Every structure is written in C-alpha cells, then in structure tokens.
Amino acid sequence: MAWQSFEQFLSMQGHGLFVWGAYVPTLVALAVEAWATRLRWKKALNAEAEELLP
Amino acid sequence: MRWTTFAATPRFYALTGYLIPGFWAVAALLGLAGLGLGLGLAPSDFQQGNVYRIIFIHVPAAWMSMVIYVAMAFWATVGWAAKVRVASMLARALAPTGTLFTVITLWTGSLWGKPTWGTWWVWDAKLTSYFVLLLLYIGYLALTSTIEERRRSDGAGAIVALVGVVNIPIIYFAAVWWNSLHQGPSVPLNAAPKIATSMLTAMLLMTFSFWSYAFAVVFTRTRALVLEEESHTEWVQSLRARRPSMNRH
Asked: ipTM, 2 decimals?
C-alpha cells in the first residue's frame, strides 16, 4: 500500500485537488453517459411506432 | 457465415443484447482493479510525486479517443460506400463516446499540466492537434445531426471522419516530431515501456476497462438508433409486442 493514512490518500501530497478533480468528473461523466444511453434505448423500446414515424 | 450476417439489424440487435451485460461486467471489474492498483498500490513517481496518478485515466482516455475516431471513420466509410446501414449507425453511436473521451483527455491533461508544467494549456503541436480532434468529432456530430436526408448525412459524416484520420498519427507522434511540453509516448510502439510494471499494469487495466465500457455504451446506443430508425418495421413491432419478458436487453 502506498499510503499511511486516509488523509494522506486524499491529499495526494498536496495535489488532491488536481488528482480528484480529474477522477471524480471523469467517473461521473462516464456514469451519466451510460445512464443516458440506456435511457434512450429504453425510450426507443417502449415508444409506440407511430410516435417515431416522421 | 459471411461478414454481412450481422449487418442485418435484427441479428445485430439480438447479438449485442447478449454481449452488453458481459461488457458492463468486465468494465466494472477491470476498472475497480485498475483504480485499486493505480490509486492504492502503485508507488509515487520520483519526479512528480502523486499527481502523476492522473495518468491512469488520462492516457487510457487519450488512446480510446483516437481508436474510437479511427473506428468511427472506418464504419462511416463502410456504411456510406457499401450502403450498410448498421455500419453508419455504429459510426453515429461511436461519435458521442469518442467526444466524451476527448473532453476527458483534455480536462485531465490540463489538470496534470498545471502542477507539472506550470500552465493549464499551451498551443503546441500535441495539444493543438488534440484540440483539432475534438473539433472533428464536433463537426461529425453537427453534420450528421443537421442533415436530415440519411444518405446525404452519412456521406457528409463519412467524408469528415475520413479526412480527419490524418490527424491521428499527428497527435501520436507530435511530441516526437516537434518540440513540446508534452512528454513522448508512455508506451512507445517500437521500444519497451518507460514506466514501472505496477504503473503500466494499472494503466492497461484502465484501458481495457474503458474499451469494455465503450463497447457496452456504443452497442446500447446503436440498438437505440436501430429501434428509432426501424420503428415501423415488423420485427421491431413484434419485439415491442413481446416486451417485457423478451426485452431484457
């Protein structure tokens, strides 16, 4: 393990803002994309054919 | 079995329905392993300390954005030239995910650049060519979503995607060909990797996790496109009629 304590892990030797500022938005963005894509598929599956016709 | 077997949208839809849960599982497992190794076990870098840990998402995201672009150009061209509709749909489904990985790369790179270079951004060859990649993705998305006639839209998208492929080797070799603040490739094509084994392993785990994630999301989006575009067809209507028992995926 590279860390002595959780505080040390969070602070990343004073670079926590940069490291977590990279990780957290990335993971959130990927989760949102996955959720939105699945929602779009479900909507398309549940839509009535007439609604989707031009 | 011919290569065109799965070009039939019902077959493509059915096959990907079986594959997607597996891709999600692999993405989650490898992602957890990669994050555990990269954030918890890999040692600090002797020069950069712990800020280097951004590498475990920055480099895999950068690789993904370039690979997805090439895949998008390939399928867009196949779809347009060979009139294979599912190929064009795949290209359209790849674009948003490629754009997202490009934005992630620029964002994480900027956060890595500030503490190590002293600046968020420089207009050097590597970063500028990467910014051009983002513009190409946006151009493709804009063209394919604004031209209503499907065949013309696929054609215009394919041309933009194909022309933009020339930018990929420029991005990859920019730091080698020109002076750049950006370091050279972490994993060179013609030499041994320059980073420690645990760091390399974490990076590869995250890369394969992103690959698996991309397959899952892109296939899900393609299936949505298939349903949206073929909603009037008999097979889609019978699929809807059979839900929910037959439509788990």
From this structure: 0.88
